[in-house]
Fold:
Amino acid sequence: MQINPPFGFKEIVPLYKNQKVRLPKPGSLPDFVRATNAVPVSYSEFGVACRDYPLVFTSTDEGKTFSPVAVLGVAGQENLYLSGGNWDPAVYVPAYIRRYPFCMARVTLNAVEQADRLICIEKDFLAEDGERMFTDDGAPLERWKPIEKLLNEYEADLERTREMCAILSDYSLLEPFTLQANLKSGGAMNLGGMYRVEEKKLEFLNAAQQKNLIKKGIMGRAYAQLLSLDNFARLLARKNDAAAKTAAA
Structure:
């Protein structure tokens, strides 16, 4: 059995109903968020995430497929939404982070990827002194129900996210761009590898394409992504404030 962990996870294993879990303390964060400048966001999160973060699309296969992310920093391994080790309480925390240490993953068995996804957990969170998520009869306990709800909703949302990105790409609506700025601490900054919706192309779509974008809720999310780019100014302000605090320390 082979399971590939998603970004940020170390070693994941299937969660069995007889296992005990050491649940994270409220407000605690996975280690990976302290050293990353972007985190995935899903279809349903665009409306709220666009208020706090710049939302962009990224590609790991030279533009064949795309994924949306919230930009957290303007340098590698930089998260400007952390304060004293905690997430800024005034901003939205993406579901990708809130679901940790759980996730759903496809399993490869005898070199064949299985169709169904399994609920998995970061192996380090399995512990004999942890909590049971299910009764001896396999019924979910109250503490498990909201976790399962988040996992199932997020998994369904990922399918909508993939469809949205595939349609935007198929309609040639994504364009690469680079953020350039001068920092108050000195020096220029170039942040590349990002894609955004090309707004001027939206008006040249045919009627069927426009109808499809509206019907699937993609049109609204396209504009949410464009509006979110104004948050780069706020992100740079966070960068400058952090540099000022460091200089004053």
Notes: The first strand starts at residue 2 and ends at 3. Residues 2-131+162-248 form one domain. DSSP finds seven helices and 13 strands in the chain. The longest helix spans residues 145-170.
